[in-house]
Amino acid sequence: MLTLLLLATGSLLALAVAAPVLARHEAGGRAVFGGCAAASLLIAMGAIGGLLGSPEAADLPFGPPWGPARVAIDALSAWFLLILGLAGTAASIFALGSLHGPEAPRRLVPYPLFLAGMAVTLLAADGFTLLLGFEAMSLASWVLVAHDHEEEANRRAARIYLGFAGFGGLSLILAFGMLAGGAGDVAFAALREAPPDGWRAALVLALVLAGAGSKAGLAPLHVWLPLAHPAAPSHVSALMSGAMTKVALYVLARFAFDLMGTAQPLWLGAPLVALGAASAVIGALRANLEDDIKTLLACSTIENVGLISIGLGLALAFRGADLPALAALAAGAALLHALNHAVFKTLLFLAAGEVLHGALSRRIDRLGGLIHRMPVTAWAALAGVAAAASLPPLSGFASEWLLLQALLASWRVGDLAFQMGAAAATALAALAAALAAAAMVRFWGLVFLGRPRTPRAAGAEEGGRLVQAALILPAGLTVLFGLLPGLMLDLAEPALRLMTRAAAPRAGFVAIGAAEGGARYWPLLVALLLAAAIGAVVWAVRRRAPTGVARGPIWDCGFIAAPHHLPFGDPSTQPTASGFGQPLRRMLGTSLLVAREGVTMPPPGATGPAILHSGFDDPALVALEGPVPRWRDAAAAQAERLRDLSIRQCLGLTFGAVVLMLALLAWLEAR
Amino acid sequence: MSFGQLGYDVAHLLGGGVLLLSFVLLYQRRIGAVINAFATQGTLLALAAAWQAHAQGAPGLYLTAVLAFAAKGVLIPLALHAIVRRLDLHRSVETALGVGLSMTAGVALVGLSILVVLPATEGARALAREDVALALSVVLLGMLMMITRRNAISQVIGLLSLENGLILAAIGVAGMPLVVELSTAALVLMVAVVAGVFAFQIRERFDTLDTGSLEEHRGEGR
């Protein structure tokens, strides 16, 4: 299986190299994206093989100067490779379908590189290879975020994204350094031999949280996500949200569950749970307030990453408290939610891309009524939206149900402080799930239902067959994973054994359970019940309806009749995106997001309209854009003073530095 | 080889001589004497290289010795003397660091380099260890000379004597490829040529060789 996966990764790299040449030909873009789709499919198949087979490892014939590059596949990396493969396949098919005419090389080259970087990160078995893949992934996606750099907003997004990517990479390098200690061997096998403890473990976890957490979008390092996702092309946003954040979570899981050893204390999971709960609430709340559909989906990603992180943190804590069955339950919830979120968020971003392509806008206030013009996109998006709102029997419900079961079982950890914290996290996770449902209703309702708000939205058109296939594939998987969560959990079992040394409680293929003999969830049964209930209602309504019904004009909720100069009606009679979000903004936004609202009244006697201003700022972004540039300017001003030194003073600086280093060396040697 | 054997003692003596001349360079104030001291240092370096060639049985080092003597013992000092004559600097006296202060700083640097090198090279041959310590001291003293002098010529000499330290380190290590020393020697000649041209240019434009006078003209275009 490892050979197959390496072959797929190698062909992705080859595609990246060949892309500049291919870009000159008409069909070059098709070749690149088609190749990416095939390679992603191979990765997904290899990942399933890896989950069913046994771990493999190999040394590549090349690598850094001090040794070969090591690659390996075990159950944990196979699970995340499956995520990468599924998201990559759907996104590549979408890109292939939405290709019209030749594509610029700068949009073509980084895409296979991005996929290959993620695959290398997941396949790596030493720190150097992992960082190589991680940085390739960051840089390639940065190029794609910056592809439309004529707009100031996109340049800002790319700048902030690059800053975060650099920060994350640096933190991970330091984390590997801390973990390797003086020996300096960063092969995973060597790192497992010497697990850190005490303050070193805490420092490693903090560095990994800063490095992988900033890539995954954990609060308070989530601010790049809502900026970068709208700037990237839609198939790239889908990959960034669906796969890249999961790769970052994989790095987190690899460190916390594997490299740092199994004998870690209970409190190691606490920061993950706390940060995850904060991300979930902030992300879900912001998703209710944004009026750009891709920004909205990016905020929903922050929420879901938060939920996955809660699951990982709980699993760590349960493992530390020697409750392996519960640890497996929490880890199973996290892994399952990572897969489900990857699939449905890829679907939603692709749908958003199709909406952008069809109706030429990402702003909710310029869309509406698209279900009539784009039925396939609308129904596929409905599947994703229902999963994101965690409605049974779709996939999101199964994994969030497992997560809540794990949270509710956290009283079995004896520590009182942990119990209190877990109770708070339970409340926050439930709040986040409810907020996410509201956000998804707002997203789907305002975009696809109602009447078009602009002529362009009224003239939207459905994409081609390939695009529809790219939407139907993840939509089908969302339904399938929702109906068969037990099967997926069985597939994840080797990964759970690797993480927690225990298997999740089994309840058969079609059901999942919280514990042996505990609560169960049968999705097929729920689906049947729901279908039966809906069918009964339809049947009853048909039955009770008098015969000979005459269709009259329906009550139109107070819409004015469309005048002939406004053929789509007056858009302002429909709810706006910010109007829909207003209750939540007033309730929660003022405290969490510094939301503000004010009315500017015209002076008495004037005939101008009163204007209502409302908005919000993410405190994390405010903090980032406030002091950080100030520090940078101060440092630059200090550095500027060095320019006024004379030649001898410059030489003196060098000399002083050399002498200082030598003195340090002498001191270190003397110890 | 160890202490008390002829090969060791002679190598040690020559290395120590090179270091001693670095001290001379540090406090000498008349420009002519500085050049002479530099020529002597170059000659001693050539002798040290020749001795190493004999002791190590490496004929390549004879070439190094010849090159060092020709370039550093003869050609560069002659060229510098010519520059000094052309620019009429015979009698100029340079205010550098005081003798006492520069000696103290120099001794401190030698102590530092011994503290650094001796523990770091544990296990190597005794001669190589002390050779490296001497060479590092010469390098540091050359740097110190560069920052304490104001005259462009003496700054160039500081740079060249720093390079002497590098050669001293290179010849002490058995098995250093010849190409390293050859390319270093070529580099030094280039540095000397460039520095000479610069000295003339500075003098022509600002009527002094004090590099401090360049500060006032920083950032000016043509």
From TrEMBL, chain A:
Membrane topology, record value: Multi-pass membrane protein
Any Gene Ontology CC annotation: plasma membrane
Entry keywords, A to Z: Cell membrane, Membrane, Oxidoreductase, Transmembrane, Transmembrane helix
NADH:quinone oxidoreductase/Mrp antiporter transmembrane domain residues: 126-409
Transmembrane intervals: 28-52, 73-99, 111-134, 160-181, 201-224, 236-253, 265-285, 297-318, 338-356, 376-398, 418-445, 466-489, 521-541, 650-668
Main location per the UniProt record: membrane
GO molecular function annotations of the record: oxidoreductase activity
Database matches in InterPro entries: ComplexI-like_HydComp (IPR052175), ND/Mrp_TM (IPR001750)
Subcellular location: Cell membrane; Membrane
Keyword Transit peptide: no
Protein name: Hydrogenase 4 subunit B
Organism for this UniProt entry: Neoroseomonas marina
TrEMBL record, chain B:
Keywords: Cell membrane, Membrane, Transmembrane, Transmembrane helix
Protein name per its UniProtKB record: Hydrogenase-4 component E
Transmembrane segments: 6-27, 34-54, 60-84, 96-120, 132-149, 156-176, 182-200
UniProt membrane topology term: Multi-pass membrane protein
Cellular component aspect of the GO annotation: plasma membrane
Predominant location: membrane
Taxonomic classification: Bacteria, Pseudomonadati, Pseudomonadota, Alphaproteobacteria, Acetobacterales
Source organism per UniProt: Neoroseomonas marina
Compartments, record wording: Cell membrane
Signal peptide: none
Superkingdom field: Bacteria
